[in-house]
Amino acid sequence: MHQRVFAAEVARALTARGHTNSLTGRAWRPGHRATQASPKTVRLWHDGPDEQNHLDRYAQALQAAGYTVTAEHPAAARPRLRITRQTKEP
Question: Which CATH architecture has domain 7-84?
């Protein structure tokens, strides 16, 4: 069963692990951008060069933090990550 996950929570988890957020600071800079796709799903993109390499590094960091990460490559769209979190079974 999936549990609720928040885009801001995912962004903070990545930032705490040394990854730059493209939406914070005075000016735009390359980094991650998380959006709320549903109450239980967050979508994550990398804004900037070397997109796939950064997505791979984000996936590793988020998996280490306990998130379930799925790479998505929709037709005619940029690659992204789908972030969810499973509830732990007793």
Answer: Alpha-Beta Complex (3.90)
Q: How many H helices and E strands in the chain? A: 2, 4
pTM above 0.85, yes or no: yes
β-pairing verdict for 68-72 and 80-84: antiparallel
DSSP state of 62: H
At 71 the pLDDT is 97
What is the residue whose two structure tokens read 């379930």? 68
Q: What single-letter amino acid sits at 39?
A: P
Domain definitions of the chain by residue range: 7-84
What is the number of other CB atoms lying within 10 angstroms of the CB of residue 84? Answer: 17
Q: How confident is the model at residue 89 (pLDDT cuts 50, 70, 90)?
A: low
Give the burial class of 59: count Cβ atoms within 10 A of its Cβ; 0-12 exposed, 13-18 middle, 19 or more buried: middle
